[in-house]
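Obj.: predict assembly geometry.
Materials: sequence records (below).
Method: joint structure prediction, all chains together.
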Amino acid sequence: MAKLVTGGAGYVGAETVRQLVNRGEEVVAFDIASDTYRIDELGKQVKFVRGDLGNFSEVLNVVKDNKVDAIYHMGSMLSWMAELNPWASFRANVLGTYHVLEACRLFGVPKIMFTSTIGTFGLGMNGVITDDTLQRPTILYGAGKLYGEGLGRWYSDKSGLDFRTVRYAQMIGPNVRTPGHWAPPMIEDAILGKPNVCQYGTPETVGSWIYVIDAAKAAVDILDAPKEKIQTMNYNVTGISSVISAKGAAAILQKKYPGFKVEYKMSTDPRRMPRGTWTAFDDSNARKEWSWSPIYTTPEAIIERFEKDLKEYPKRYGLSQ
Ligand SMILES: NC(=O)c1ccc[n+]([C@@H]2O[C@H](COP(=O)([O-])OP(=O)(O)OC[C@H]3O[C@@H](n4cnc5c(N)ncnc54)[C@H](O)[C@@H]3O)[C@@H](O)[C@H]2O)c1
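Observations (raw structure tokens):
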């Protein structure tokens, strides 16, 4: 039986494919992208199927043709892409999730995990953000993901589908260039000995970090967990739950890479993610219920692994041919 990873050529999807292949799973990666550089090193260990989540028949075909017994539904148009083309993002993120859930129902796929986002919160991001914090997204991407969380819960109630969600904090790793994400370019510039222009934050802007390897680990771990452990269903997950400010991150980097300089030049780009005065991304339900346990739990540990990945696997992260 095969594990299907939608968005399997993407940043977290490819790492999830790698982790599943490495433990001997049969893996099918489904993605609209024609460029599969992130998973090329896996060769024939992964079957790649090009297709569009917005096309119901293509989703049905990939499930029907591959004896799929679990789905990691990670395919999505991210925040800034969704704002650039809201119509395509509705097809990919909203219809696409419906198509994948219907495919589960029609072909008897028993379980699925879904990747949601901190972007499902929005208005009033104050204090500690828990699984119980009111989700009031201000961006289309967040609204679509919130619908996916609710739709999955509905399929779970109505058809007994074993549905689980991880809601990621801010993704950290080499070559992340998502507008609004100030930390990855800052870390990368420090490692490469370049000055950083922080476009998406003031010194006080905060984030809660999860390293890409941990994001994929969370996807794998949540679907591995025994069903009775899953009570909350849709979970926050992060590597570091307390927030890190841009000036705090810069200070850590300056200690490790003396002479590193940061200039704050706030972008006027409207795609910048909204920020409040939140203080932590609480993932205690995930830790308690299904023993979520990230590998990289301090800024220093994340920066060290970032440097290793940047230097040893540039192709994997799209930084060399
Ligand atoms: N990167 C982040 O900061 C972040 C934060 C929170 C949640 N997430 C979620 O994690 C998941 C993985 O994100 P990522 O960082 O790997 O992003 P990514 O953009 O690298 O990967 C998403 C993949 O989905 C594919 N895709 C887009 N539209 C598609 C369609 N119509 N049909 C088939 N495939 C399609 C893309 O080609 C891409 O390979 C996504 O669901 C995303 O919403 C990411």
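Conclusions so far: The mean pLDDT is 94.
To do: check interface contacts against the pulldown list.
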